[in-house]
Specification:
Blueprint lengths: L1 H18 E7 L4 E7 L5 E5 L7 H11 L7 E8 L3 E5 H5 L6 H8 L7 E7 L4 E7 L1 H10 E8 L1 H13 L6 E7 L2 E8 L2 E9 L3 H14 L8 E6 L4 H9 L4 E4 L2 H4 L13 H5 L3
Parallel strand pairs: 1-4, 4-8, 9-12, 12-13
Antiparallel strand pairs: 1-2, 2-3, 5-7, 6-7, 9-10, 10-11
Helix pairs in contact: 2-5, 7-8
């Protein structure tokens, strides 16, 4: 009888795991989760990271402590915030000796020892390379059957291109604020014209980088437009300073952009997680 009960409980656990999906966002010293189980609505879980522990150790603790992570999941997506290197897709396809490690390390020097991930951005004919911490990925793999690794920058890049590039005659620069950084990107002739990530802990730094890129791209302060989303540092000051240089500044509205998706209504959820919604 005891054996039968044990088997029933184990079967229930396996079934629950098979029905569960999860997105894990590993930011700069932050963790957040989006879970969905057995056809229910997606639920956003910000997680309080313990100082003095690595992000991977915090993630392992979360799987042990949190009820909504109990039993792991069948499918998981791990979103990381490491820098992205982009190159034309044909350069990857035509190069038989393509070496992601050497190309990435030649541009980014802070991610040595991390695993390098290749991901195609087909909408703009680009190949991306980014890094993922091996320990972080191992923790997810220990608790989930299938693990897909992504980068927070890429779904936002694809969204800006697919939704905004074709509309209107103005050239557009996009700014996504997240994790005390700002992703800046622009497009031209169905390709990425510019894409890079800058530190944006302070509003003065963010102002400098936006205006520097604007000038570098030769954009017009009266005719072209800046589209902004995310948490800007010292928003009132930064917005005021930008408006003194640029005539057309628009806020990206997640609710409108995502056709009133319930995920866009969740307070505090990063835009990249909304785009990757379960």
């Amino acid at each position: 009888m005891h054996t039968d009960r044990h088997y029933a409980l184990r079967t229930k656990s396996i079934m629950s795991r098979q029905d569960k999906k999860i997105i894990i966002r590993a930011g700069r010293g932050t963790l957040a989760f989006l879970t969905k189980e057995d056809g229910s609505e997606a639920v956003f879980h910000p997680y309080v990271v313990k100082s003095g522990m690595s992000l991977a150790a915090n993630l392992r603790e979360a799987f042990k402590e949190q009820d909504w992570l109990a039993g792991g999941a069948a499918n998981a997506q791990l979103l990381v915030t490491t820098p992205v290197v982009l190159l034309p897709l044909e350069e990857y396809q035509d190069n038989e000796a393509f070496d992601a490690e050497s190309i990435y390390s030649g541009v980014i020097t802070k991610c040595k020892g991390d695993e390098k991930v290749l991901q195609e951005v087909r909408s703009v004919d680009a190949m991306s390379i980014f890094a993922v911490n091996r320990d972080l990925r191992m923790v997810v793999g220990d608790n989930c059957d299938n693990v897909e690794v992504g980068n927070v920058t890429l779904p936002v890049l694809h969204h800006f291109y697919s939704r905004y590039y074709q509309s209107g005659q103005r050239r557009k620069l996009f700014a996504y604020f997240h994790d005390k950084m700002v992703d800046l990107c622009s497009f031209d002739s169905q390709r990425i014209r510019f894409a890079n990530t800058f530190e944006a802990t302070h509003a003065h730094d963010a102002l400098y980088y936006i205006l520097f890129v604007w000038k570098q791209l030769g954009m017009d302060g009266h005719e072209d437009s800046l589209h902004v989303i995310g948490e800007m540092p010292h928003e009132q000051w930064l917005r005021g300073r930008l408006q003194s240089y640029l005539s057309n500044i628009y806020d990206v509205n997640p609710v409108a952009d995502l056709n009133r998706s319930p995920l866009a209504e969740i307070e505090g959820m990063p835009f990249d997680m909304m785009l990757c919604g379960l």
